[in-house]
Structures are given as structure tokens and as C-alpha cells.
Design brief:
This protein has 243 residues and is mainly alpha-helical. Helices cover 63% and strands 0% of the residues. It has 13 helices and no strands.
């Protein structure tokens, strides 16, 4: 079953608190009292991790799409294609996207609630940032306002600067990326310490690990790209250090 099918009017709507619950509650007629009064701790009490992740991506993508003052066709197509939204769910997912885009609430409360839910799964939060970069890149240019927003979300998530820089650098093609930035290390570090960092990152960002923690299969391809960047960075550093 698609993760998108129960995002409106389903069990997710009846188990969320905080800003996400408010948003879904307004979409289905304001009948969800728990959504109005619940806290971030209630978020996802009965929802599946994949549904929470999908909802987070839709809302933050909507906020990001207007960060530079305009919503481009390419960004909308990117949201649909990258999140693999089936045709029969476009209308419902579109309702969430448009509501999040039009409402006055900023992205910060949503980011804070997501950070609370995934506070023990930092690599899942990193994957949210990774996909937000993909959405921002869709029109061929990541504007300064989009970059500022993504970086601020990363800070709310608790990512440090090295982690953020690694995600951003890994978006480049293998022949253009700085391998030391991807592996969150420095050129002067010895090969053994870099290898430990490589093994740690490759484990954390392995698609199977991310899937087990709630990253939906619909978006796992972007995780695989991150993994390929990590492997490419390690290969490059080995050659540099042993040549």
C-alpha cells in the first residue's frame, strides 16, 4: 500500500498533535480535537514512521518551494517525482502541500516537531535535509533564501556544520565533490581515522538502516545516492593518501 493513501482522513490525522495535527485537522473539517491540543510527544503515537516521514517531506517541501518568493513548475514536478506520488493520490497530497504553502505558520514549528520525533535518529533527519536539497535544485539553482532555510532547518534538527556541509557536498557529482567534506574529516587526518569515519557514515546511511527507521521506499533512491557519494569519497581519499 502506498504511504500516501492515509495521510488525509486516516489514522495519521487522528493521532497527531502540534502543528502537523493542526494542519491535517483543518483539512478534514476541524473535527480532530487532539490535533488542536496535542504536543509533539503525541505526534505519531499511532502513525507509521513512513507516514510521518512522508508528511514531513510534503510540508517542508511546500514551505521550501516558496522560500525564494515563487513556486516554480520544476519544483512542483520534483516533489511529485522524487516522492513518487501516484496519480490516484495526487489530489490528497496536493491538498496537504497547498495548505502548508498557503498558511501563515512558518516552517520552524514543523521542523521542531520533526526534530522531537526523530531526536534519536539523526541520520533520518539528515535524509530530510538531503531530499530538501533535491527539491531546491529542481529549477537549476538553489537560491540564497532556500539555502538559508535548509541550513536553519538542519540547525533545528541538531546537525552540526560538518554534517550539513557533508550533505550539501554529496549532492555534487563524484568528479566534483570534495571527499574530505563528504566524510566530515580533514586532509591532515590519517587514513585510519578517516576509515573509521567512513565506516560509521556508511553504516548510518545504508538504505536498509534508513528504511528500518522509517524512511519510505518511495524516497530511498536519494539515500542510495548519498551512499554512493560516501563510497566515492573514500575511494578518492585512499588514492590520495597512498599515491
Amino acid at each position: 500500500m502506498s504511504i500516501w493513501g492515509s495521510l488525509i482522513g486516516g489514522m495519521v490525522g487522528f493521532s497527531l498533535g502540534g502543528p502537523f495535527g493542526m494542519l491535517l485537522g483543518s483539512l478534514i473539517g476541524g473535527k480532530i480535537s487532539r490535533a488542536r491540543s496535542g504536543s509533539a510527544r503525541n505526534f505519531g503515537a499511532f502513525a507509521q514512521p513512513q507516514q510521518i516521514f512522508a508528511l514531513a517531506l510534503i510540508v517542508l517541501s511546500a514551505k521550501l518551494s516558496k522560500a525564494d518568493g515563487q513556486v516554480s513548475k520544476e519544483e512542483l514536478v520534483a516533489v511529485k517525482d522524487k516522492l513518487k506520488i501516484p496519480e490516484n493520490e495526487i489530489e490528497n497530497v496536493g491538498k496537504i502541500f497547498n495548505k502548508a504553502k498557503e498558511e501563515s505558520t512558518g516552517y520552524q514549528p514543523y521542523a521542531q516537531q520533526i526534530a522531537q520525533i526523530y531526536r534519536n535518529n539523526l541520520n533520518v533527519l539528515e535524509e530530510v535535509i538531503n531530499i530538501l536539497f533535491y527539491i531546491a535544485e529542481a529549477d537549476g539553482n538553489v537560491s540564497n533564501s532556500e539555502l538559508d532555510m535548509i541550513q536553519n532547518i538542519a540547525q533545528i534538527f541538531g546537525l552540526n556544520q560538518a554534517q550539513f556541509n557533508s550533505i550539501r557536498e554529496s549532492r555534487k557529482s563524484s568528479d566534483k565533490l570534495n571527499p574530505y567534506i563528504v566524510l566530515e574529516c580533514k586532509p591532515e587526518d590519517d587514513l585510519q581515522s578517516i576509515r573509521k569515519k567512513y565506516l560509521k557514515l556508511s553504516k548510518e546511511h545504508h538504505p536498509d538502516i534508513l528504511t528500518s527507521k522509517g524512511v519510505p521506499l518511495e524516497v530511498i533512491e536519494e539515500s542510495k545516492k548519498k551512499m554512493r557519494s560516501i563510497n566515492s569519497a573514500w575511494d578518492q581519499i585512499q588514492k590520495l593518501k597512498t599515491s
